[in-house]
Every structure is written in structure tokens, then in C-alpha cells.
Amino acid sequence: MTYKAKQQGISVETVHPAYASQRCSETGCGFTHEDNRDGDVFVCQKCGKELHSDYNAARNVAHKFIQNRRRSGSGGATYHPFRGGGPVLKERRASDTRSEAQASRAGRKPTPRQPNHNS
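The structure corresponding to this sequence follows.
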């Protein structure tokens, strides 16, 4: 997947997935325990949140990615729970940064760019 992303000019950043499948992805919970996961089913032993275990883990990987970006000062990332697992792909173009800055100065939220599925 990495080489395909590079062909398209998309950077790939890895996130260490330790405990992602055992940690509750519910905002404000984050309880981690091996009993939270039973095969494909994730049920938090603390708050009761129920999700498919892969979806829960993907949300945690996305959250770790965002936290790493904030700590590194790279910025530009927003939290969007993923529908699937795997590496986190981040595509940034100069035009994205310009339009986000223009929207910020104008006091409005930037319009999300739609992915190009024609390649």
C-alpha cells in the first residue's frame, strides 16, 4: 500500500497500534482491558460501548495519529473516525493549506475536499 500511495503523491505515516483493540474508543472513556474484546465484538467493561472490534481499533489508531500530530506540531489534522482499519493515509497539497487558511481568516470552516476516485 505504501508504494501505491507514494505513486499518487500521498504520504503514509505509521501509528503504533499497541492496545488499540483493547482500548475503548468512546470519547471520555478510554478504558483499556483485554476482556473488552471477544473476537469480532468489542464491549467496554466500563462504559458499555459496543462496536465491531476492528472498527473500535481503527478509531483508536486514528486518535493516536491525531495526538501524535498535535504533539509534533505538524497540525492540520482533524478527528474523523475511520470505517476500516489499516495505515493512516494523509494527503496534503499546498492548495489545501491555502484554502484552510483563507476560511479561517474569514471565520468559517474549510470545505472538505472530495477524494478523486478517477485514478
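The radius of gyration is 17 Å.
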